[in-house]
């Protein structure tokens, strides 16, 4: 029984994520003001777990990492912030973190490590990925991810060799699981929404029905090509490793055979056999390359492809709409 | 015509009150008297508010302590020549009773420091309070904030919906009265505008759709359903315009020239391209998209295959 308690059960009961409006607005504002270009902005999500729902009620941003702020203590900032928020009755429980992304490239070692440490400490924590470029194209793009239990096991063991991964039977599709998001508003915020609608001017930019697609496609494909290059390099490395391994096996085999032959000859001549030497010291096995990078790259490529496919399907729809508008059929 | 100010001579309240301020005056028009308010004062800068500030204010109001009737907090933003842009805020704990008011200044300073770490360009530009009117305590708090920022603005948001709507108003204070004898402070209203970044606008559009859902929730859709939703909205708009045109044609509504000009713009926006050219353009675009889809499917198959091979 004691053993059962010690093994961490990484399966949580949280099935859906509830997001409140102010969190969405704060994340959007944070990126808009502080994130230029391809820099990522990060922050902490606060909330609580209710039954099978993870409710995120507030968030606060993290300052950017600057070189001249070397003695900036992140932990202290976080502690102070949470203490202050507690005074004004804001939920001060850490339930996850958010990060912005550039064209969907967020599957990296850093993210994996951070999410692992979060999830290890707090079982239900998620990472919320905000895609500002996709949002600017017309629809809010927020996705919540969590590491699958299998991946958690592997990270805990820190066993990234091919054999380890094979044992866990994990593929790039089983790295992250997505948690569906629902946006919820209190009644007061509803009133605010009505008020805003009443007072604001109509939006003059309707980006969602924009027909131009080449810019976005070019950038996405560029990133995809870079990843695929990385992937092919990785594959080459793995191939050389397995070739070296098999060559070494052959050499070992030959050496043993020669030894046996010699020993047989010596015995027939009545001389003492040669001492058995330590095989492993003579033939050091080559280092197996860590497979975690491959997994990450594969996951990232998968993500890019998904995004590209979504984008093209939307654009095809828009093109057909334009055709209908022209009236030529 | 401006309504007459009500003077409030106060004397010998508790020591919290600074000696110079003997009276307070609030220029508050009757509820619902919006027309006169807008015609009244445009003195001073325009206040541009981002929706994130209002959402935070509503949230702090909902989380207020037992017995507190209103919450106050600091407003952060940037100051321009003609406008003040309010981009952030945080609530400050305070206690208010009949006679005195206590605000946790340490807390306010601390929070501002923390916020400055993240966005160094934001400065304290004023403070907010929920509730319908400006009270005497507001004068004191405003006094404190004048020390932090030059000419702070005061924002009120009627979260208790006393007048049936959430009135969001901004004020700036000005000295008034006879110098040397009775001096007072007057709060003059400012024009309030709501301003959005592009992405904020899109976010707010999505949030708006929770209004109509039964339990105030809305999932995030993706893919083609969004385009379909957009198309449905355009269809609705076209239906409205068509209904208007029908009315004008049948004489029910008098024709308006400016609307007519807009309509002509609208119809001319669809470019006239010969059928062949359009066909070509359409086909080449579709080919591009299909090719990219094919490539990405191929890549995905490739990595899946690679993985299976490695795990052999």
From TrEMBL, chain A:
Question: Where does this protein reside within or beyond the cell?
Answer: Cytoplasm
Q: Which SMART domains match?
A: JAB_MPN (SM00232)
Q: Which residues form the MPN domain?
A: 17-151
| One GO-annotated biological process of the protein | formation of cytoplasmic translation initiation complex
* InterPro entries recorded: eIF3h (IPR027524), eIF3h_C (IPR045810), JAMM/MPN+_dom (IPR000555), JAMM_MPN+_peptidase_M67A (IPR050242), MPN (IPR037518)
- Which is one GO molecular function term here? metallopeptidase activity
Q: Name one GO cellular component term.
A: eukaryotic 48S preinitiation complex
What keywords are annotated for this sequence in UniProt?
Cytoplasm, Initiation factor, Protein biosynthesis
What subunit structure does UniProt give?
Component of the eukaryotic translation initiation factor 3 (eIF-3) complex, which is composed of 13 subunits: EIF3A, EIF3B, EIF3C, EIF3D, EIF3E, EIF3F, EIF3G, EIF3H, EIF3I, EIF3J, EIF3K, EIF3L and EIF3M.
The task this protein performs is described as: Component of the eukaryotic translation initiation factor 3 (eIF-3) complex, which is involved in protein synthesis of a specialized repertoire of mRNAs and, together with other initiation factors, stimulates binding of mRNA and methionyl-tRNAi to the 40S ribosome. The eIF-3 complex specifically targets and initiates translation of a subset of mRNAs involved in cell proliferation. Component of the eukaryotic translation initiation factor 3 (eIF-3) complex, which is required for several steps in the initiation of protein synthesis. The eIF-3 complex associates with the 40S ribosome and facilitates the recruitment of eIF-1, eIF-1A, eIF-2:GTP:methionyl-tRNAi and eIF-5 to form the 43S pre-initiation complex (43S PIC). The eIF-3 complex stimulates mRNA recruitment to the 43S PIC and scanning of the mRNA for AUG recognition.
Any idea what this protein is called? Eukaryotic translation initiation factor 3 subunit H
Name of encoding gene: eif3h
Automatic annotation (TrEMBL), chain B:
Chain positions covered by the region annotation Disordered: 1-22
Which GO MF terms are attached to this record? Answer: deubiquitinase activity; metallopeptidase activity; translation initiation factor activity; translation initiation factor binding
Q: Where in the cell is it found?
A: Cytoplasm
User: Which InterPro entries does this UniProt record tie to the protein?
Assistant: eIF3f (IPR027531), EIF3F/CSN6-like_C (IPR024969), JAMM/MPN+_dom (IPR000555), MPN (IPR037518)
Q: Do you know which Gene3D superfamilies this protein is assigned to?
A: Cytidine Deaminase, domain 2
- BP terms from Gene Ontology: formation of cytoplasmic translation initiation complex
- GO cellular-component terms in the record? eukaryotic 43S preinitiation complex; eukaryotic 48S preinitiation complex; eukaryotic translation initiation factor 3 complex, eIF3m
Cytoplasm is among the record's keywords: yes
Could you tell me the superkingdom of the organism this chain comes from? Eukaryota
Q: Which UniProt keywords apply?
A: Cytoplasm, Initiation factor, Protein biosynthesis
Q: Report domain MPN positions.
A: 47-177
Looking up Pfam families in the UniProt record yields:
JAB (PF01398), MitMem_reg (PF13012)
Q: How does it assemble?
A: Component of the eukaryotic translation initiation factor 3 (eIF-3) complex, which is composed of 13 subunits: EIF3A, EIF3B, EIF3C, EIF3D, EIF3E, EIF3F, EIF3G, EIF3H, EIF3I, EIF3J, EIF3K, EIF3L and EIF3M.
The record's family statement is: Belongs to the eIF-3 subunit F family.
Q: Briefly, what is this protein's role?
A: Deubiquitinates activated NOTCH1, promoting its nuclear import, thereby acting as a positive regulator of Notch signaling.
- What's the name of the protein? Eukaryotic translation initiation factor 3 subunit F
The coding gene here is EIF3F
């Amino acid at each position: 029984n004691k053993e059962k308690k010690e093994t961490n059960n990484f399966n949580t009961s949280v099935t859906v994520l509830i997001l409140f409006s102010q969190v969405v607005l704060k994340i959007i504002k944070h990126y808009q003001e502080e994130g230029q270009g391809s820099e990522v902005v990060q922050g902490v999500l606060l909330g609580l777990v209710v039954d099978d729902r993870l409710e995120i009620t507030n968030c606060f941003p993290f300052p950017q990492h600057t070189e001249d702020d070397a003695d900036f203590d992140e932990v202290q900032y976080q502690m102070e912030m949470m203490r202050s928020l507690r005074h004004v009755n804001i939920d001060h429980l850490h339930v996850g973190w958010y990060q912005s992304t550039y064209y969907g490239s967020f599957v990296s070692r850093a993210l994996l490590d951070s999410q692992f440490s979060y999830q290890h400490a707090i079982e239900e924590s998620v990472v919320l990925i905000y895609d500002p470029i996709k949002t600017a194209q017309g629809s809010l793009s927020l996705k919540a991810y969590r590491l699958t239990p299998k991946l958690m096991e592997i990270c805990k063991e820190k066993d990234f060799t091919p054999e380890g991964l094979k044992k866990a039977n994990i593929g790039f599709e089983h790295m992250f699981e997505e948690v569906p998001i629902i946006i919820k508003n209190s009644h007061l915020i509803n009133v605010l929404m009505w008020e805003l609608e009443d007072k604001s001017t109509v939006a003059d930019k309707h980006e969602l029905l924009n027909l131009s697609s080449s810019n976005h496609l070019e950038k996405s494909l560029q990133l995809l090509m870079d990843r695929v290059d990385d992937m092919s390099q990785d594959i080459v490395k793995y191939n050389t490793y397995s070739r070296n391994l098999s060559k070494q096996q052959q050499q070992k085999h030959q050496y043993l055979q020669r030894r046996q032959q010699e020993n047989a000859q010596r015995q027939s001549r009545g001389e003492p056999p040669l001492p058995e030497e330590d095989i492993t010291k003579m033939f050091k096995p080559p280092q197996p390359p860590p497979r975690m990078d491959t997994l990450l790259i594969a996951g990232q490529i998968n993500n890019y492809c998904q995004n590209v496919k979504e984008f093209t399907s939307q654009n095809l729809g828009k093109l057909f709409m334009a055709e209908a508008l022209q009236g030529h059929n | 015509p401006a309504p007459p100010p009500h003077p409030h001579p106060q004397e010998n309240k508790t020591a919290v009150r600074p000696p110079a301020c003997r009276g307070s005056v609030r220029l508050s028009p009757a509820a619902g008297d919006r027309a006169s308010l807008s015609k009244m004062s445009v003195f001073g800068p325009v206040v541009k508010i981002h929706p994130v500030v209002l959402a935070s204010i509503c949230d702090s109001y909902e989380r207020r302590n037992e017995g507190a009737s209103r919450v106050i907090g600091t407003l952060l933003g940037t100051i321009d020549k003609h406008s003040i842009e309010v981009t952030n805020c945080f609530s400050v704990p305070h206690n208010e009773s009949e006679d005195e008011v206590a605000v946790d200044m340490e807390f306010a300073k601390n929070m501002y420091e923390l916020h400055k770490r993240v966005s160094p360009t934001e400065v304290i530009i004023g403070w907010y309070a929920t509730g319908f009117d400006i009270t005497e305590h507001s004068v004191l708090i405003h006094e404190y904030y004048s020390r932090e920022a030059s000419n702070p603005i005061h924002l009120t948001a009627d979260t208790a919906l006393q007048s049936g709507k959430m009135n969001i108003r901004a004020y700036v204070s000005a000295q008034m009265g006879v110098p040397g004898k009775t001096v007072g402070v007057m709060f003059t209203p400012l024009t309030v505008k709501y301003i959005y970044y592009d992405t904020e606008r899109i976010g707010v559009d999505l949030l708006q759709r929770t209004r109509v859902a039964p339990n105030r929730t809305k999932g995030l859709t993706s893919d083609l359903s969004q385009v379909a939703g957009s198309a449905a909205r355009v269809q609705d708009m076209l239906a409205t315009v068509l209904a208007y045109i029908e009315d004008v044609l049948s004489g029910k509504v008098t024709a308006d020239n400016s609307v007519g000009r807009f309509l002509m713009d609208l119809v001319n926006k669809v470019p006239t391209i010969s059928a062949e050219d359009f066909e070509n353009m359409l086909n080449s675009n579709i080919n591009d998209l299909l090719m990219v889809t094919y490539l990405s499917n191929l890549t995905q198959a490739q990595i899946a295959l690679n993985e299976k091979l490695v795990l052999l």
